[in-house]
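Re: Re: ligand-bound prediction request (bumping)

Still looking for help on this. To restate: I need the protein modeled with 2-acetamido-2-deoxy-beta-D-glucopyranose bound, output as structure tokens. Inputs repeated here so nobody has to scroll up.
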Amino acid sequence: MIVLLVTCLVALLSPSVHSAGSSADYTHWPKIAPTFCNGSKQSPINIVTSSVQGNSKLTSFTFTGFDDNSTFISITNSGDSVVVSLDDEKVAVKGGDLPGLYNAKQFHLHWGNGSSSPGSEHTVDGKQYPMELHIVSVHSKYNGSVSAALAANDSTGLAVLGFFIEATSEQNKTKSWDILTSFLTSIPNSGSTTTDIMDQITLDSLLEGVDRTKYYRYQGSLTTPDCNEVVIWTVFKDPIKVSQNLIKRFSTTTNFKAASTSVLMTNNFRGVQPLNGRVVTSQVPQPAGRAHQRLHPPQPYPALPGWKPVELYSICWIR
Ligand SMILES: *[C@@H]1O[C@H](CO)[C@@H](O)[C@H](O)[C@H]1NC(C)=O
Ligand SMILES: *[C@@H]1O[C@H](CO)[C@@H](O)[C@H](O)[C@H]1NC(C)=O
Ligand SMILES: *[C@@H]1O[C@H](CO)[C@@H](O)[C@H](O)[C@H]1NC(C)=O
Ligand SMILES: *[C@@H]1O[C@H](CO)[C@@H](O)[C@H](O)[C@H]1NC(C)=O
Ligand SMILES: *[C@@H]1O[C@H](CO)[C@@H](O)[C@H](O)[C@H]1NC(C)=O
Ligand SMILES: *[C@@H]1O[C@H](CO)[C@@H](O)[C@H](O)[C@H]1NC(C)=O
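Reply:
Sorry for the wait, this slipped through. Here it is.
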């Protein structure tokens, strides 16, 4: 009953781009917001690496403002996630086969319960990571208005960049994540916000260690009601490494939007949705090189019956 109530409140009060409720909630969304949550191109998904297809158009991105430390406007407890608002006049992404320039509005996170109980939304071959970070951007033709993109029901209206977060036992792995998570004590409850976060962190510093030329691409939706199918998803293969103690701060500091008592925000991810025939693509393999050679068994081994070039390809470039 409480779970359902929270879900209804979330659905009514925050039909926005961040996460909602606890892990048990999302099964009700198709009833609450059937227009899209019961659609056929929903997110997140489980990425099956052996089914990923090569796409030579998935070139590198151009990231603007990711090295600028004056782009973080505020950090807010939205009741279902922690959302950092970005200065969308300074931060943008293009390239990578996106159809134009996308202005970055915010990033938010999804997590489980500490680093041992995972909470990423996307999974890879069934593996769920401890956390996932989503940078939400809107096509420049909408002049920074996410609601305009949603109203247009434009399948290319939003571009979300998804980054997995993996736990490392190294203490205080990155200074930036220490600074970011230190703000959480200022926003324990739903609706609380602080603007005192400028000039300290850049997006680049939070994404340290990720090769941003290697990613998966598919067409999907927001992962919260109304689950609008307006998102070009980019999910990067390399995880960001963040120390366990910093990951734990998320599930031990902030509270869900709740009627009366404080309930720690945990498991604020949606479970994976059916692919329904959608294809996940990724970078094509390099035509030559060592990996290529290894795929051809040296003579006199006979070629294995049933091995097709396509299968060899996928072995070559996945990972
Ligand atoms: C969701 O869609 C399926 C078929 O696409 C339909 O059978 C089901 O009744 C729908 N559920 C809701 C809650 O609308
Ligand atoms: C999260 O983990 C803590 C400590 O292990 C535990 O006490 C708590 O019940 C867990 N919460 C949920 C929602 O699983
Ligand atoms: C965006 O701004 C341009 C120029 O000011 C205007 O022509 C256009 O209608 C605006 N689009 C939206 C969706 O607000
Ligand atoms: C949204 O657009 C899709 C096609 O991209 C269409 O199938 C669907 O009916 C539209 N939904 C609404 C509510 O307009
Ligand atoms: C990690 O960061 C915390 C908080 O800033 C600090 O108290 C602690 O000494 C740091 N630990 C290490 C090993 O640097
Ligand atoms: C933020 O960027 C400005 C300009 O590049 C620089 O002077 C300043 O030292 C930076 N602040 C921090 C905390 O790195």
